[in-house]
Amino acid sequence: MSEVKAGAEPESTAHDTVEAAVRAQLNKALGGVRGMAEAAVPTIAFTGAYVAVKDVKIAVAAGVGAAVLLLIVRLAQRSSPQFVLNSLIGIAIAAFFALRSGKAENAFLPGIMLNAGYAAAMIFSIVVRWPVVGFIIGSVTGDPTAWRADPGIVRLCSRLTWLLVLPCVVRVAVQYPIYLADGDQSGLLGPAKIVMGWPLQVAALAAMVWLLARGRTPIKREEPA
Predict the structure, then answer these.
(1) Tens-level pLDDT at each residue, the chain (225 residues)
(2) Are the CB atoms for 41 and 66 separated by under 8 Å?
(3) What DSSP string describes 27-42?
(4) How far, in Å, CA of 146 to CA of 9, rounded?
(5) What is the chain's Cα-based Rg?
(6) How many helices (H) and strands (E) does the chain have?
(7) Which residues have C-beta within 8 Å of that of residue 179, sequence separation ≥ 6?
(8) Looking at residue 4, what DSSP letter applies?
(9) Please, is 171 exposed, middle or buried when counting C-beta atoms within 10 Å of its C-beta (0-12, 13-18, 19+)?
């Protein structure tokens, strides 16, 4: 593969290869272990509360309360609340669906729809040869589209994007039929969402790290004038 040219960006100086840059940016996007755990806790609280008391309002209160507690901890530690806020928004949307219908399983419908949308958008980006992972490289090099000049990097980014698509497709393929089944399916949807949440994302990330570890595509930085 040819070298990727870029302006002298402060963030990019820490990475000498495309693979290292993508690994770092993906970890940053997921928020590391803590960020992924914070995304799972409100769902665990919602599901556990509903299974215990069979009351949608109490389950919603437990889920939202867990997210708010995590936010307070973040603020007290003066660390970035980004991932907790994402989790809080997610549980708030889920709560709206559940409370509006009075059915706990409807809390999981927005997540199913979101994963379907993500999968469709990423597959489209691969088909038109603008794989979304390529923009991770662009964010590091300072040029959002220079990576497209190298067919090898486009192929690498396409493969990496497919690895991001797979968890979304698996979640929809498993969870949507459960959602459509007769009766209250929240007792199954909750564990399914937890198991297919950060554990599945970690598995996809591990596959990406393995793929990235096989190559060393240099990032060439232009010297400042």
Answers:
(1) 444 444 444 444 455 565 666 666 666 666 666 777 777 788 888 888 887 888 888 988 998 999 899 999 989 988 888 778 888 888 889 889 989 888 888 989 999 999 999 999 999 999 999 998 888 777 666 677 887 888 878 888 899 899 989 999 999 999 999 999 988 888 888 888 888 877 787 788 778 778 777 655 555 444 444
(2) yes
(3) HHHHTHHHHHHHHHHH
(4) 14
(5) 20
(6) 9, 2
(7) 105, 108, 109, 112, 185, 189
(8) E
(9) buried
- Amino acid 157 reads C
Amino acid at 25: Q
E strand or H helix that includes residue 79: none
Integer Cα distance of 76 and 60 in angstroms: 24
Tokens of 199: 């554990």
SS3 call for 218: strand
The three-class DSSP label of residue 55 is coil
CA distance 2 to 147: 10
Nearest in space to 42 (alpha carbons), one of 108, 91, 96, 100: 91
Nearest to 24 by CA among 209, 148, 207: 209
- Both tokens of 132, joined, read 């979304």
- Work out the number of other CB atoms within 10 angstroms of the CB of residue 48: 16
Residue owning tokens 């090099």? 141
Q: Are 90 and 42 in contact (CB under 8 A)?
A: yes
